[in-house]
Amino acid sequence: MAETTSHERELSREETAAYLRRIADELASDETTVRVPVGNKAVRLSPPSRLDTAVRVTERSRRIRRNVEQLELSIEWNPTKRGGGVDEE
Asked: Where is the Amphi-Trp domain (predicted)?
């Protein structure tokens, strides 16, 4: 069974950088589980020391509407243990 927790909102560039830094700090810690904030919750994950990562950049030119740029970051792994879950904040 797959569980998905998602949240979308608009952030400033500075807020986006701070959010990504918070996730990066969690991944860089020596803890066996990391807490990833998703909306008003924190999801506990158990990443191993090596992660599969992917980056995709899409640039769309449109004649009628505004141009669009998109950056997607993907990090995937098999959990090291059953320590995941969701914490209400």
From this structure: 6-83
* pLDDT (tens digit per residue) in 25-70: 999 999 999 999 999 999 999 999 999 999 999 999 877 878 999 9
Joined together, the tokens standing for residue 40 give: 């008003």
Residue extents of the structural domains in the chain: 13-88
Let me know the angle formed at the C-alpha of 78 by 80 and 73, rounded to the nearest 5 degrees. Answer: 120
The residues near 81 (Cβ < 8 Å, ≥ 6 apart) are: 32, 46
* CA–CA distance, 55 with 73 (Å, rounded to integer): 5
User: Cβ-count burial of 67 within 10 angstroms (0-12 exposed, 13-18 middle, 19+ buried)?
Assistant: exposed
